[in-house]
Amino acid sequence: MRIFFSLVSSEILKLRRTLALWTIVLGPLAVVILQSSLWLNAKNGFGTDLDLWLTFTTNILSMWSLFMYPLVCALVLALIYHYEHATAGWQKLYTLPVAKWKILASKIVGALLLAFSSFIVLISISVIGAFIMDALHPNIEMPREIPIAAIAQRAFFVFVSMLLVFAIQNFVSWRWETLAVPIGVGIAGTFAALFASGWKYGYMFPWLMGIHALFQTPDKYEISLWGGFIGGVVILAATVLYSARRDIG
Amino acid sequence: MSIILTEDLSFKYGQLLVVKGLNLAVAQGEVFGFVGPNGAGKSTTIKLLLGLLTPNSGSVKLFDRNLSDNRIDILKRVGTLVEMPSLYPHLTAQENLEIVRKVHRLPASQCDNILRSTGILDAKRKKVKEFSLGMKQRLGIAMALIHSPELLILDEPINGLDPEGIQEFRFFLKRIVSEQGATIFISSHILSELEQLATTVGIIAHGKMKYQGLLSTLKAQHAGRLVLQVANAAKVIKNIQPIWSDATLGEGDSIQFPGSIQTDAPKILTHLVHSGVEVYGMMFEQPNLESIFIQLVNSKDHE
After folding, report:
1. Listed residues B201, B220, B239: the one ending a domain
2. Domain at B274, CATH number
3. Helices and strands in chain A, H and E counts
4. DSSP SS3 for A67
């Protein structure tokens, strides 16, 4: 197990000074800036009936789960794997004295930590953005008490249900050496989600599972949440097992 | 004990058989030069030795143990540099080494030690993308040596280095052998590049081993030829062929005695002078390693 943690820590070390690391900051920042701008343009504010914190963060999370997170996921995973594809890093990694399955598993854990961090960054920047908005807008007054547990739960639901998208992007980024394929899949999935949103089985489309889990769509969100989670775990496990049996040419 | 032993090792890429029944034996403490032209199967063999590829048939034993059953224990004792060093250009030399050090669970001080012995300690905080090719090779070697392996497997480490870099690299490897006593398996597509380094060589072509043994034996097996410049060579050769049946006409007025060694020269010369042949010149041609290599590679026993 210590070897596995060493591998994960090596994976985290590899992220230093990379675009992948910047992406998990810039992606959330873009969403929060966009949402804050929309609110700042609302001249009369939003009255007192709304739960401002939950409304603001849920808007951000919906934008995040529908557009930005799938793209961040695609870019981050494509870059993480590209560092190995471009440097023939696999050959070095698979000659290390560790079980073959641990090589890819540690990379996945490192990437998952990064993806999870993007949610933490998103919530943190959302809170900062809300306070800035509060200071700038005369009619928006954010309550002093932040419902952090409710926000975190919604974010967690999105993260868990989007595990299937993460797993698909992970497989594609590992399997194809060119950056174009995983990024293409990410863009195609995100666009397809726009059309699939009107479809009655849209909640089963991986790129829409996050938004259904976020809004807890009655009768559907459990399928999105558990389907995304279990589907993701199955694909990730299958990828790891496949990688352990595959030759490194 | 053989550090590397393969028996009837074969590997196919699709339908193409690239390694054909390879029997390889590398003894402890040897610097083994694995030579063959591009596409001969060198890199594939190295990947088979490291468990990166699974053989279609045959076996690989390292340190007298089957690789397939003892991969992790064996790799703990092996340092590798396969093709270009796998380095992360956005990281510093020290950070690149840290990745390997953590897996081998070595003390942090080991990074500095190995950077010092590879002569790049001063550049430890420099990003690898700012390194020259020679420095990258040194760092690649440092990563391969960080855990003091007993066997070092290097795949074409000289590729792309300038003559000065090659000389420096050769000197550096010699030092590693003398200081650490490791067995080195080094591949190249140029035999002469390994001449000053390897004690034993294996020559591979078309996936088959053409020669395996001491470099000195290989040279001895390919003896030189005596070339004599004489007057009227066509007439002279008729006179001497009953005695030296191998003698042939060479370029100009010359006669060649293939397979002759230098000690044959006085006997041949005395005979010719006594027969009244005017000898203008005498030359002993020793084939260089490249011509031996080309001869072996093009020999007909391949399919």
Report:
1. B220
2. 3.30.70
3. 11, 0
4. helix
Q: Which residue of A lies nearest to B90 if distances are taken between CA atoms? A: A17
Considering the entire predicted model, what is its pTM?
0.87
> Is residue B82 one of the residues assigned to a domain?
no
The encoded tokens of residue B50 equal: 């490291």
* CB within 8 Å of B274: residues ≥ 6 apart: none
Residues 6+ apart with CB under 8 A from B232: B253
ipTM above 0.95, yes or no: no
Range(s) of the domain holding residue B46 = 2-77+149-220
pLDDT tens-digit map of B104-127: 999 999 999 999 988 899 999 999
How far is Cα B137 from Cα B120, in angstroms, rounded to an integer?
11
Mutual angle of helices B133-145 and B93-104, in 10-degree steps: 20
Residue pair B2/B26 in contact by the 8 Å Cβ criterion: yes
How many beta-carbon contacts under 8 Å exist across A and B? Answer: 84
Residues of A in contact with B139 (CB under 8 A): none
Domain boundaries of chain A, sorted by first residue: 2-245
| pLDDT digit string, tens, across residues B206-265 | 999 999 999 888 877 777 788 889 988 888 888 888 888 888 888 888 998 877 666 778
Q: Which stretches of chain B sit within 8 Å of chain A by CB?
A: 13, 47, 50-54, 71-76, 78, 80, 82-84, 86-91, 95, 98-100, 102-105, 143
Average pLDDT over residues A79-87: 94
| Mean pLDDT value of segment A241-248 | 94
| A199 or B47: which leads in pLDDT | B47
With an 8 Å Cβ cutoff, are B90 and A18 in contact? yes
Provide the pLDDT confidence category of residue B302 given band limits of 50, 70 and 90. Answer: very low
| Chain A interface mutation, best of B50, B99, B101, B148, highest count of A Cβ atoms under 10 Å | B99
